[in-house]
Structure formats: structure tokens, C-alpha cells
Fold each of these.
Amino acid sequence: MPKRKDPDRPGEPTEAPIGRLSRRGFLKGAGLTMAAVGVQGPEAIGLGSSQDMEMLGTDPIDITLSINGTRRKVSVEPRTTLLDLLRDQLEMTGSKRVCNRATCGACTVLVDGRSTNACTFLAIDGLGAEIRTIEGLAGPDGSLSPIQDAFVRHDATQCGFCTPGMIMSCTALVSKNPHPTRDEIKAGLSGNICRCGTYQNIFEAVEDATRQGGAQR
Amino acid sequence: MSDRKDDVRIKVGFEGHIKEIEVTLPKGDILPYQPGDKLAIVGKPLDRVDAVAKVTGKAKYSYDRHPKGMIYGRILRSPHANARIKSVDLSGALAMKGVHAAISFPDEMGSSEVRFAGQEVAAVAAETEALAEEALNRIQVDYEVRPFAVTKEAAMEKGAPEVVPGRANVVTSGRRRRESAEEFEKRLQDQKEKVDEALKDCAVTVHRTFETQVQVHCSLEPHGSVMQWDGDHLICYASTQATFNCRREAQSSRGAIRAGSAEVTTEYMGGGFGSKFGLGREGAAGAILAKKAGRPVRLMLERRGEQTAVGNRPDSKQEMTLGVTKDGKFKALRAYSWGTAGPSPFGAGARNHVFYGFENIDKVEHMVRTNCGQARAMRAPAWPQGVFAMESIIDEAAAKLGMDPVEIRKKNDTHPIRIHEYDMGAERIGWKKRRNKKPGAGRGPVKRGLGCASTEWFASGGGGSACLVRIHKDGTVEVRNGAQDIGTGTRTVMGMVVAEELGLPLEKVQTFIGHTTDPLGPGSGGSTTIGSLSPAARLAGYRAKEELLQIVAERHGWKVEDLDLKGGRVVSKKGKRLDPDLSFSQACAMIQEGAVEVTARRPIVSRRRPNYQGFAPTNSGVQFAEVEVDTETGNVKVTRLVAVQDCGKVINAKTAESQVRGGVIQGVSYALLERRIMDRHKGQMLNADMEMYKIAGPADIPQIDVVLVDVYNGQSNTGVMGLGEPPKVATAAAISNAVFNAIGVHITSLPITPKKVLEALARKEEK
């Protein structure tokens, strides 16, 4: 798993600020925004005094994110979630919006390899990270990943609305655990809900894909 | 051939039980699939044709549509459960920069009455969702608030508030047309006395009251649509299970939208389960906002609205009395039920008297109004709740008589398929060995039990559907119908029956669905979609083949009746290659006018009876559950479930099995977890989300074994019967009976929670 590069920590490998904002600069701005609406002052959230801060409002800001290996320059309001950015600005609608509060897993993406609910993850928090979505799983020639392929063969889709999230969670699972047992699969998918009832087909698909090994793509 | 009208003899039945019957085929129809037919595609477990689009995220759902210039719609909902809207002031919202339109529901749709908390009051469309949300806060609504009742118990209390002003809260259903209140009363009294009399002769009488909860559809893709106007023409991307209903709604002169013309597109939709038969109030709001704003509007419900306002399965309280003779024959049944479907009473019944042909039935259904979101059809409406009560009380009677639950059912069941399915399922789950002969007899704190329950459905499809098959000169084949795929595999199965007729592999046939510009198709309801569509598709494929072979025959001086298409080639009727040997694409190259194009309508016998006589008028099934009940924590775990199910001719064994598993899983969820909770002080739904409204997750799923019984049912040229609903009917009952077998006491109320299990065990100990 690639290590997350954190520009906030000295000594850690740091990427140059992306777009016109660094992560630190942005956080300060966000703190000020909160103060302006009377929620919480910057002191209260431990960011020091307002004097050394760059003033930034709620207007859209330009950032560059790395999504499926491509650098995408976007302009987002700080409150924009990664999910809304993907779906509404980048036309990457594979990730679905269902509960919009991290209960159902339909919006699952990988952020530096970790399965993440894009509905409750701010787009700006993706700065410096490698984001992978359902659109980025198949090979450049369109060849399906082993998990995707097993989903097709085991009929692990019905209406298909939970499917992208399920596949991303399965992908995260097998990257950590290349040979999961049935119970480990269930635990690995515990953040995903399917309403049509495809679970058993999904379990069988993951078991099939991991039987030979090498399903971690 | 195509004008066959004669009486024909066909074979019907299933393995080991095939018989011949004489039927009159509708004019122009072809023979149904017959036992022994050499089918290359039909019946095979093929991959879904749209699976790749779904696993790559490329499938475009209505929620994913984003026409240029699109803005976002949002709905303001009433916080009050019973109120009159005195005024709605939209000016605050309209004054905001970026807000392009705002409407009030009383103005646009007529009624100022609020019947439940969560009902639509106003809507806005704005540049961003956040802006739209903010605009809702600036709308001023003045309500005249009234007292409310949000449970049927509260609505039935003496002096309860009127749920709908001027209307009684409780309505007894079943009064016939032209029957006076007195005559109705008298009829109910007569049936009561008849059953009282019959019960006197019974060796065993069991009396129990059962309760079931309100279940919410919780489709993952919410209700809603993306609406775009082109002058007076409405282009609508809806999340619906009935594209043509939506178009009708948009064009209706009595509707709220009144489009000059409309087209509806639903290429993919994220679940409906009975709740998405129309555009609804949210669809109308979206269309009106789009018109006012002059911009396309996406209005998809937020999760709270989805859980509250767009449908649910009614609850029930069922007072049951079952009388059985000493040799186990069911003699009499009394079933009085109460249920609530929301402000309108209809649909709150419980189907609990269907399977066993009772001579003496005293059944009365009471529909109770409450100030809750209105129920809609939900996967076998009224059946899971009624069957839970019926099948549970049967097991209690069997225990009293010391009879095996399977044997008592077989003794009373007359369904020609189900009567054999009991043994198939019993063998698969190890019924004889693993069941406790005496309920609750197992040792140790975790007790195992087995239970079974029956199911039935009645959908061979109906008329109205048509399918287009187009064979192009370059050898490509299109199959088109304008209905949607609710997730069952409609696209795949339509393609399969056409590919079979044309002798092609499935991937050579491209199926297009979900556009109302294509031929008419059914709503996905009552498990009728494939029963309605597949005969039309097969007939269109058959006729397209005839046309193509006619062209080939003329070119080569062959007789068309000697020709067939098999294995991608033109062959003789016996399947032999011809001289010259022609491939399908070589045959297509002979088409002069660009394409062979055939639209065929589904042949029907009559409007009242759309199908001809077949093997059985209904399809059936039996489910067996195995559970482990932890008597210390009260936790119930379903460990295994065997579902024996027939659905007429199985077209695709893979998607059919998935359907059954899905029904079972929703049944497990209904049995153990789901429940809408209403706040009786505030009148609002407390768990209108997905964390407190519990749906079965990966950890709750048992090993599910599906035994599909392939039945040559006759009835249509494909003989397919519905499979959406039947697998959901029996599951909760089978689980409840397995719990009874494990611990020796019945949990008479769904969902079977640990608390109810512990309470029941405590009551058992007191005895």
C-alpha cells in the first residue's frame, strides 16, 4: 500500500502544494470561515491566532487531485464532498449517493488504498492522496479486475446500485487479505448494504477471485 | 405456421410429472417450449448482459444524468403529522441569488391538507444543492396544526383524533357492491357462526394473535428524476419501475405536469420493490420547477424523504383461530386482522387463507387510518404478513397433535407442484435428522431448530406488451422494448429468447430497454414483467426469422418451411447444413431493404384471462430455515435456508437463482431486523435513515440453497411465471417456525428481536 504523503508533517515526504493552496493554508482558511459563522474560533480548534492566517472564504478554490492515476484540476467549495465532486463535476457517476452519511457504503472509494466513504470525505482532504474509484479498476484495455470479473460470473449484481461500492470494499479487502475466509469477507463488507440481496453471490465471487491468488489488482 | 389457431396438444408439467393437455392457442401464436426441445440458450445459466456496465460504474442510472445547465431541486416537508397549510410564502427563497424557481404543493397540486409528517409542502430549484437546501429554510409556512395518531393502536382508541377529518379511522373491508351495511353485517355474522360450528368438531383448536411491523422499501436509488423541457415536450429520466406509467402521468390532462408530449428514459434503476410505479409528487415538482426555471432540474429525494414519504408495507395484527381434526385435516379458520397503510386505508390486509382450501373461513380485515406515510405495493403486498401468521399457527397445531409440520401440510395441500416440493426441500435441509421432534428439545444454551413454510404466486403475465426485433444487413440484431429492468435481468432474458429463435449466441443480440420511444412494455409489478415480455420477444424473434428465411428461400429456390436457423447458420428443419452452406451473416447480406423489422404483440386469450390453460394456475414454493437461538442473549441467527421454488419455465437459471436469494434475504431482514418506528409524541418517523432502520447486512446472511423446479407450465409461448415476489412470502414464517422448533415457544411478533425471544422464554418458564 502506498504511504500517504502528509504535507503537514515535517520530515515526511511532502508534495509541493497542489493548485494555489497547501493543505495547511486551507485548514486555516476553513477555521476562519467557521469563526465567521460563529461556530468555533480558530483558537478553539488549535490553529493558533488568526494573525498568521491566509484569509480564505467559502468561495470555490482550485485544487488538483490525483484520481485513478490522473491529475485532475478542479474548483470546489471547501464543503464539497469527494462524492459530489466525482459525480457532479467530473461525471464519474459510478460511485453512488444513497444514505449520504457513511452508513451504506455505496459511495466507497479507495484513498491511498483505504476504503473510504466518499459521501463524508471532503474533496480537499484528498489533496496529496491517490484516489481510486470504480472507474479506475479495469485495465487501460478495458479488461476487468479479478473482482469485477468474478462479480460478472457469479451474478453478484441485481439492480447494481450497491455494486460499485461493494467492489471497492472487496478490492480493499483482498489487497490486505489475499485469501479471506467467508467470515472475513463478511467482516470486510460490513459497511456495505445491498437491498436486492446479492450478498451470497458477492461472497462466492470474492472466494472465487481469491482462490487462485492475485486478485489484488 | 404463424396463423395457427387450432386446438393443439401440448405437454405440461415437470420432471416425472409430465402430462398432455389440449389448449387453444391465441391467433398467431407459436407453441410453448416443450419437454425434450433442444434449446441452445434458454434455460442456461448465462451472465447478465449488463453486468459489465454495472461492475465498471458505466451503467447510467437516472440519478447519474446530468444534462447541460442542470440545477438541483429540493423538497420542503411538513414537520406536522396532521395539519392544514394556511399559507406558504416563497419570497425569501426566491430572493436568493442562485435560486431559479420555487413552488408550493398546495398551489401546484391542489391540496392544503397535511396527512403525515414528511409530506411535501414546497420545493425549490437552485444552482447547487447546498443553495437549494438553504432556500428551503427561507420558506415561511403557516400551519393549522391538529392532533394526530401515528399507530393503529392510537387511532383505534376511544376518542382518538380523526386522522382524516370527517372520516372514520377504522374501515372494515370486504363489503360487496350493492350490499347494504346490514347485509354486510349479516354475512359476517353468518360466516362467524359457521366457523364456530365447525370449530366444535375439531380435535385441536389453536388461538393466537400475531403482529407484524411496518417495513420500508428503502430502495438504494431514491425516488426522483431529472426533468428537461424542449418546448412543450418533456424529457424525463426517472427512477421508476414503470416507464410507460410515468409517461402517461406526465401527459395526463388531469395531472400536475400536463406535458404536450413526454418521453421517459430508465436505462438502469436502483431498486423499487413496488414503490416506483409513477413519477409521484416529487416527479411533478421536478417537472414544474424545470419549466419555471427554464433549466433541467434533478430532483432526487434525500434519504429521509425516501424512508418517510414514498411507500412502505403495512403492519398487521392478526387474531387467528385454526381448527384441525385429529388426523390433521384443517377444518376451519378464523382470521381477523387490523393493519395500517397510512391516511388512506386501502391495502392493509393480510393474505392468510389462501393455500390450503379451507371449507370454513371467517375472515375479516380492518383497515386503520394513521397519520403516517402512505403504503405502496411492496414485494408480495399483504402476503408475507398473512403467511407468517398462517404458517406459524399451523406449526402450533402440528405440535399439539404430535405431527410433523411437513406431513400436516402435505395432508392439506392440493397444489400439484408444491405437494412434491415439500420432500425436495426436506431432503435438502436434512429435515428428518436435524429437526427437534419435540420443539425446544435441544440441549445447551444455543438451541438449533428447523422450520418450514409455503409460498404461492399467480403471475403468468398479461397483454399489452410488444417487442421489436430488427435484423440488419450487416448481421447485427437489435431487440427493443420500452420497459425497464428493475434488477431482475429483463434485458438479459429478452435477449435470450430472441437469440434462441435466431440460432445465435446471446452476445450477437443487443437488447435495448427503458425508453418509451420503443414498444410498449409492462410495469415491473406483480412479478409479471418477464411473463408479459418474453412471449412478445419470442414471437417477434420467430417472425423475424421467418422473414429472413423467406428472403433466403427466394434467393436459392428453397422452400421456406424446410429452413431453420441454428448455431449461427441457415440449416434444414432437421438441423443439417445446406448446399451452399450459409452463415447467419451471409443470410443477412441478402436483405434488400436495409433491415428485417418485426414488432410482435404478446398474444393473449382474452382480457379477463390473458393466458390459456396450463399445468397449474399458480406457481409455488416451500422454504426451510435452520436457526440457532442463543437462549442467554436472545439472539437468533439464521444459519441455513433452503428455498424450493418453481417459476414456470426457467429461462436463465443464474438470474432466476439470484432472484430467489434476493427474496429470501429481504425475508430474513423482515423477520429479524426491519421496523419503522414512529414517535407518538411528535408524529414523526424516528428511524428515517439507514443506520437506525436496520436492513440485513453481510453478517446476517445464511447459506441459501435454491432448488429451482423447471415447470412446463403452458399458459404462454414461453411459459414463464413471476419470480420477484414468491421467494419473499415464506421466509419470515419459516424462520419463525424454526425458532419455535428450537425453543418450544412461538415468537408471535415480527421482527423477532432478542428482547422478544428472552421475554417469550421467561413466560415459558413461568408456566
Amino acid sequence: MKYLFLAASSFLAITAQMIAGKHFFLFNFMDLSLILIAYWAFYRSRAQALFVGSLTGILQDAVLGLPLGYNGFGKTLAAFVIAEAGRRFDVEGTWIRFALMAVSSCLSSLSMFALFLLLQRSSSDVLLGASLLQALITAGVGILVFAALDTYNRIRTKRVG
Amino acid sequence: MSIEMASKGEGRSLYVVIGLLLLHLTLLSIQVKDPSGTLLFKKWVLLATSPMLNGASNVSRAISDFWTGYLWLHGVRAENARLKEDVRQLALLNSSLAQEEEENSRLRRLLAFDASLPYQTLGAHVVGRTPDFLSGTIYLDRGSLAGVRADQPVVSDGGIVGRTVLVTRNSCQVQLITNADASVGVMVERTRVPGVARGTENVLLDLNYISNTEEVNVGDALVTSGLDGIFPKGLPVGKVVVSQKGKTGFRTIRVEPSADIIRIEEVLILLGPPKPVTDSVAPGVVK
């Protein structure tokens, strides 16, 4: 059941990304799946964040019509970086979360760029530049989402207490 | 999820991420082709297996080389040593057979000579020789037990060799005709002119008491005259190699013995009693 929920959340993230990107251009510069991965790494199991990364990556490849594995590789790598950082550092702070998401997003994009270059002998520098913008936007949106979630959790905790 | 489970999950995260990354790469490799149209998966599998295949091949080759280059050669070395030993053995055998053949040939000649002699004979081997062969003494492996006595003639297939001088139970000493102390009554076979042949400590004999008036030519054969009381009449002695008129009224004559005195190995001892001396003995004959 847990893994079904994990798969469903991944699927929803990709679908939401597609729908939002179709209507709002800026959503194309946001990686909702990376925010989902960060959520699992910060708030749930870090090991399971790896599976979320893999699954969302493969779904993203399938949706974008890319050979399966490009995004899966990048997102798994990003999930590992976030999970490892969460194990070693205090990731409660806003800026560290921002930095972690930005760095992991960049790493994911870079790994894809490298794979493109190695496997298909072609890549786009524009894609690399857009990836930097995507990393900043994703990290910013992620901070807002997590701040809202933290506020919600605090209010809920007070009510229960 | 409990904290304990979570920490356990985190501990495995490194292995999990490696597995997942490999999964993605494998997924990519079965979809993406290289510029030559080959699936990357096939290429990578080949790339991953080729070091192992090469390594296995190298190890196999190294073992094979070690086997052929050392162990097998080690066997070859041992075989080579054994074959060399065999060659040595065969060379010795060959030499031995050649010697036996030579000895057989000599003995056949000696036997034939023996058959032509009207005397009782005894075969003997030369077992010793004085260091200086020109000193004129040899030792035989027959003695008094075999019937040998002193002053018995010793001959070979070529002619006379000498006479026995000292006899023990199982051996005897022979004074060769080339000994400076030896003298033999002889005569020129062609002209029947008698004389005395003396040893000279040389390979040649001196023929004495032949008058300048007698005709003796180089190449004339000499036989025993039987007048010395030791050697029976008619045995071959040698051949004239030098014949000149002398200043004292006697010719200077040199004789080469018929018997191979230097290389002699088997001889016959004439056991029959020497003929009784009825005529005057030539001067200087040693009994």
C-alpha cells in the first residue's frame, strides 16, 4: 500500500507538471518531481526517496518521449544527494533546503547533459542554461511549499496538543 | 515507518542508489544505439566482458607457455640427458664391439698361423709391457701351470716375437727379438745364407756375420735357421730394409721384424721342445 501511494504520488506529480506547464509557461521551468523527491527525503524515508526519484524520472522520460533512463538516472542521483545531505546535516533550515534542491536539480540536469553527450553524441547548451533557471525556480517553489507544510504541521500539532 | 527501519533503510541507500543507477543505464543501453547502429547494451556487455575474456585468455596462455616453456622443456632436458647417456653407452659398446672385431680378426690370423705350425702351441694375451716399449720385454698371462717354461719361442701371426725368460705360475716374461740382448739364428730365405739377427733397442734388427761377398738385397725375407736351439727352423723373422758392404768384411744389414712388435696383443707360445742343436751354433746366440 505504501509503495502504491509512492507510485501514485509520482504519477500525480508528473501529470500536474504537464497540465500546469500547458497552461502556465513558467511551470515548464519548475521540476515538480524534484520537490516530491525532496519531500520524501526531508519528511519521510530517505531510502524511499531514491525509489521516488527513479520512478518519477522514468515517468518523465516516458512523457517526454525520451529513451527511458535519462531522467531516471538524473533524478536518482539528485535523490541520493538530498538523502545523504539529510543524513549528515540539519536540513531544517530554509537556505540549506534551498541550496540542496538547487544543487541536486543542477546535478540531475548535468548528469542528463553528460549522458546525452556520451550516448547520443549531441546536446544543447541552451538546455544547460535553462536547467540553471529551472534549478533556482524549483528550489524557490520548494522552499515555499515546505514552509507552508511546516506551518500546517505546527498548527496541527498545537491543535492536537 | 519507525526510526529503526528508517535508519536501516538509509544504511542501504548507497547500494540502492548504485543498483538504481545501473538499472537506468541498462534501460538506456537497450534503447539507444551508437552511431554505427549497434545497441549500446550489446556494446557495453562486450566492453564489460572483454577484459575478463582477455584476462582468462592471458592466464590460459601464461599457463600454456609455462607448461610448454618450462615443465615440458624440463622433461625434454631430462630426456636429453638420458639420450646423451644412451649415446655414451652406445659409443662405448660400439668401441667395445670394434675392439672385439679387431681382436677376432687377429685371433683368426693367429689361428691360421697356428694351424700351419707343426708344434704344440699355447695362446696367450699380452698383459704387460715395460714402459719403454723399445726395452724389449713383455708379459703374458700364461705360466708354468699352463705348461710354459723358460726359453720357449713366442710367435705371432706375422712371425717370431721373442722367447720366454722368466716363468711364474700364471705369467711369464718374454724377451722380444728387438731387445739388445736378444739374438736369433736366421737365414736369407732366397739364398739360404745363415746369419745372426740381434736386437738394437730399436725397431730394426741388425743382421750380422754375412760376408760382403754374399748377395743380400733389400726386400729379402729372413726366416729362422733353427741353429740357435730356441726357434724352430723356417719361422718368418723379417725383411731386409738396408744392405750395404761393410769395412770389416761383413755387410751392414738392417732387418724390419715381420711381427708387429709394438702393437702386439695376442701371441702363441710354442710348447714343443726345440730341436736339438747338432751343428755349430752361430756366435752370439743367446740361449
